[in-house]
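Reminder: ligand-aware prediction takes two inputs, not one.
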Amino acid sequence: MRAQPEASHFIDGAYVDDPTGAAFECVYPATGEVIARLHAATPAIIERAVDSAARAQDHWAGWKPVERGRVLRRAADMIMARNRELSELETLDTGKPLQETLVADATSGAEALEFFGGIAPTINGETIPLGGGDFAYTKRVPLGVCVGIGAWNYPTQIACWKGAPALACGNAMIFKPSETTPLSALKVAEILLEAGAPAGLFNVVQGMGAVGAALVTHPGVAKVSLTGSVPTGQKVYAAAAAGMRHVTMELGGKSALIVFDDADLEDAVGGAMLGNFYSSGQVCSNGTRVFVQKGIRDEFLKRLVARTEAIRIGDPMDDGVQMGPLVSAAQHEKVLGYIAQGKAEGARCLCGGGVPRVQGFEGGFWVEPTVFAGVRDDMVIAREEIFGPVMSVLDFETEDEVIARANATEFGLAGGVFSRDLARAHRVVDRLEAGTLWINSYNLAPVEMPFGGSKMSGVGRENGRAAIEHYSELKSVYVGMGPVEAPY
Ligand code: NAD
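Here is what comes back for the chain with nicotinamide-adenine-dinucleotide:
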């Protein structure tokens, strides 16, 4: 299987390469085969990317907002029309099954382009009366060249969630995908160009952390939006601070999903499975600490195990398959290490816990969906982000107790509550220290709703109108209408 792009980078409206850049390989996670070979960006490539983005931004910021919006909406339509092809590429890049990529990746990227294309013409300031005829007005102005740095779990979605609001506000974007999943962002760049965006407005440069770091400290860059782990976030935030650059940080989590006795059992089980096994558990907002109230625990675990054991693992390109492999050999090793640690710490492994044998895909990075019960708060599997299909079920008795335990983490990305008592559900989410919460649902992230974390899980918000504030800044203008009253 091959998915070799024309060249590694997409800059100024064209594929470009510099073979002197460090070589790296893109691997299909279901087989371990190399499907593409690329080069990391060299300093010369980075300069070209920043120069062309700056030129394009200057031009683009002067376009009528409706015209900017139209380009984004046209790109959204093109992505939807090519959904199957883009989803297959996403599956090759990530190993996620087509059943997911067809509905959650390119489509989610298209929705971001459609949403921000729609609101591009509505990005306004305000007029502020100041007495005596004086007034002030504010303008929301673009920041300039923005850098997006992606994780590997949702490559198309991340490129669009960052690119769409950036472009809607009149910025240019240079996107650096994760080196593990370099392919699909190149397609987003091609499509935006074809949709009418000026060459250079959305550039893609490839490479490892060092390329990201070079972009973050480049004097021509005004803003950095990172999706990644907390340790990377700390480095990027610190580096951006030196140049007083704007940041958005979408980082990791260890979110709590709380199931009260009165919850609808099947919904709660379904929510917990979605919040742990979708994308083989490689979702930042996953509710990996599932707190189940004692009265419902046994029934919950019984249904959870039955439904988990029925998950279809296999060829990601088969539409009927529900779970693919993990993204890489490194992630595979990491997740298996956590499973071994959970067993060693005395958690009860109710199902999964091993490596399934998938015929014809023996070289893939497979892990069975795994449920641990009897997990205690101090166990490593309950404290650290695993980023694999490993669910920890913890027991609780009272509302106050579960809230205190749910909040006892440095992370604050997400959380959820299943209960038929809606007053209680609202009360509990109100007290959970997290940026994104669900009631009787889990992990749905529509573009209309702001998404992001608090505490160590992040800074800023993606999606919704809120994202506009993170890709623009206010300019305030005082207008004096009378004589200047100077005391001298
Ligand atoms: P990672 O932190 O290893 O890498 C993320 C990106 O940062 C990659 O593109 C990488 O090349 C780049 N990078 C690494 N070091 C850098 C540096 N010093 N300067 C600039 N860029 C640098 O994360 P990952 O393993 O790719 O992704 C998994 C992590 O991402 C998990 O922790 C997950 O929770 C998080 N994540 C968060 C969200 C969210 O929206 N909150 C979404 C998806 C993933």
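The first helix runs from residue 43 to 60. The two ends are 79 Å apart (CA to CA). We will return to this case in the review session.
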